[in-house]
Amino acid sequence: MTGYIEVKDLVKVYSGSVRAVDDITFEVMEGEIFGFLGPNGAGKTTTISMLTTLLRPTSGSATIGGHDVVKQQQKVRSIIGLVPQELTVDDELSGRENMLLQAKLYHVENKVAKERIDELLDLVKLDDASDRLVKTYSGGMRKRLELAEGLIHSPKVLFLDEPTLGLDVQTRTVMWAHIRELKESSNMTVFMTTHYLEEADSLCDRIGIIDKGRIMALDTPKKLKESLGGDVISVKIDGEMDQTEAIKAVDGVLSVKKEDGSYRVKVMNGETVTAPLLQGISKNGGKVTYVTLERPNMDQVFLEYTGRSLRDAEQAGSYDKMAMARQMRRSS
Amino acid sequence: MFSETVALTGRELKHWYRAKVQILMMLVQPMVWLGLFGQAFPATIPVSTMNGAPDYMSYMSVGQLAIITLFTCMFVGMSLVWDRRFGFLNKLRAAPIPRAAIPLSRVFATVIRAVVAAMLVLAIALLFAHIPGLKGLTIIGHFGITDFLGVILILVLLATAFASIFVAIALTIKQQETLFAVINLVNLPLMFASAALFPISSMPDWLQTVAKVNPLTLAVDGMRQLFFHGSTGIYSLSVDIIGLAAFSAVFITLGIVVAMRSLKEK
Ligand SMILES: Nc1ncnc2c1ncn2[C@@H]1O[C@H](COP(=O)(O)OP(=O)(O)O)[C@@H](O)[C@H]1O
Ligand SMILES: [Mg+2]
Fold this sequence. Notes:
A: 332 residues; alpha/beta; Rossmann fold; four-stranded antiparallel beta sheet; elongated; disordered C terminus; B: mainly alpha; 10 helices; binds adenosine-5'-diphosphate
């Protein structure tokens, strides 16, 4: 099976020196939500800009639905939807007028457009505000309108660049729900970027961890976490008897470590091993008083593959941004 | 191509009529000229140099039609800079539309705005002529529908040329402050090195040479022949119109070429 989006050896060098995207290769399958997780300045927006025909790759190639993003731009543009990082909805138009304009730019037939606009405004819960000027909207409402605009022509692929950047936690959850709903109601392929670990973890079928323009790891969130060596089950057991051997005998247990009265059990998959483990212990006469399951989180995954925590990377990134802003002021 | 251009032109016009303050501001300058300067201007300019206008106020009123056109066109640059800054241009670049629709829609919307503004100024100038104690635009001879259409045609051609120039400038100079400076640098000489406000016969020779090839001069020269029948212009009416048509054809082509290059992915 080949991917719907195919990217091969893609490179973008800005103004001769900044290697923003440094030789990346990956595929996105039809119907999947694929996410790029990385700190500010990792090259996420640059990648999206190349895939959406806004930026010319320095080298390498990319196709969407078999269409080359450099040689068949109009074809690519007509099958993709883009929800950019910054808000681009028009303040001086109402929500509905914004949608109508978008519909015309994407050649959606008038009759179809009317229905589709109602449907989409409903989906993103803007139906009540649809006739108000966008300048009266909150940030979250604008972002939702932006999402609805990206969907007007029922694109094959939707690009979401940091869909919840700058939104409060509640609005972020609402956006996630919208994106999940979309995925369930259509077979759309979604390419999204984020620097929120939870977002990548909970929304994406597969994640590419990107740092300094390179893909450091690429897999399902589950496999990425498993690659760190599985889950840890901690059990506290009453009684003096040593349970180490009994625990080791359970299928799926990798190792056991005894600390005081509790055991740290490393397993491949905590969800499936917990029950047999508890059974094994009680069969052996142990009385379990306390159980916790620890799973590796994305933070640990990020640390493992990039050598730094996402928070540290973020700080380094914002430093880059400041340096760049200073430089831009100087050169103007 | 056509439908996208229409849609984008519609957006521009919505912006315009929703910005009521901007429309009022736009009329301030011609009002100052017509209401104050024109009324008080001493009669030192010989009537014989004024292309058949009966008085300076009538002469200058026609000039104001061209000048409001110039100033309306100037604003197209500002809106483009904003659209770039807020990512709207990128949104258009990602859409499956012909690139040329982007500059063309700006030019069309600006032409409509300019003609509407010029008609408002014309109405005011005509009204002034009927208010006792005020001077205004006094028409000589019969001003028929063909004369009116001639005036509109001239304004449309003039606005097309200017709007295209400013679209090209705004897409080349991306910084707002620099753009402001350049627009001012272009506007004032254009306005004064022309027959819009003063007869060119009163200008030094070198300035006359410049003024004679200024699109503003062609526009006011043509319009004056339509408002003041029996007058002779600097050029004949047909030369004025052909000249303006050539200017607008050249500049709209330039505008599209510059836009295509500037909107292309880097
Ligand atoms: N237009 C540009 N010119 C020069 N450098 C740029 C430009 N845009 C982005 N960069 C640089 O490229 C790198 C990647 O940026 P970007 O793709 O925006 O990252 P992200 O979206 O992951 O935050 C950063 O170092 C950024 O400073
Ligand atoms: Mg970004």
